[in-house]
Write a structure and sequence with these properties.
With 168 residues, this protein is of the alpha+beta class. It contains three helices and eleven strands. Strands 7, 8, 9, 10 and 11 form a five-stranded antiparallel sheet that branches. It has a three-stranded antiparallel sheet with strand order 2-1-3. Strands 5-4-6 form a three-stranded antiparallel sheet, covered by helices on one side. Strand 10 and strand 11 form a beta hairpin.
Length: 168
């Protein structure tokens, strides 16, 4: 029994000594960015000190590995699938104030055009198609083919048409 306790103690001592000798790597993968914040490449097996030496501006990279989310920055800019590290860098480097996590379907791209109808002749014409990013509760009320009346008079009707693929 004494020998078993001594053997167990020795094994635990060896494991603790061996685990303290294992060096934890401080090297990571980094996402490189251009001056506008766009992804331009990835660099791996570099420490933070090596990145600072290679890229003097901390606005040119961030550490990969975080969980991606969708964000609304200053209630104006929608950023999709980026980690907290990118958002922190974005706020600092581009002088924005705050960011909040939002559902990734919070903002959507919609194509719109106006249809101007002249009632007496039963004729119509279309405006140029525009592409808009719409956010918030608005997107949950839209569907392809939706028409919203903008103006109506005795002889004309103007509606806004919506499409999510540019086909009306």
């Amino acid at each position: 029994m004494m020998r078993t306790k001594a053997s167990a103690f020795f094994i635990i001592l060896v494991m603790l000594t061996a685990s303290s000798c294992i060096k934890v790597s401080n090297k990571h993968c980094w996402q490189l960015l251009d001056a506008f914040g766009n992804d331009v490449g990835t660099v791996c097996d570099k420490s933070e000190a090596q990145m600072k030496a290679s890229y003097p501006s901390s606005c040119n990279y961030y550490k990969l590995g975080g969980t991606n989310y969708c964000w609304l920055i200053d209630n104006n800019i929608f950023v999709k699938d980026k980690p907290q590290e990118y958002i922190d860098l974005f706020l600092h480097c581009y002088n924005y104030a705050n960011a909040k996590k939002v559902a990734c379907d919070y903002c959507q791209i919609w194509y719109t055009r106006q249809k101007n109808i002249y009632k007496p002749a039963n004729t119509f014409r279309y405006s140029t198609v525009t592409i808009q990013r719409l956010c918030g509760d608005t997107v949950h009320t839209l569907f392809p083919g939706r028409e919203i009346i903008l103006r109506e008079s005795a002889d004309s009707l103007i509606v806004l048409q919506f499409s999510n693929d540019g086909k009306f």
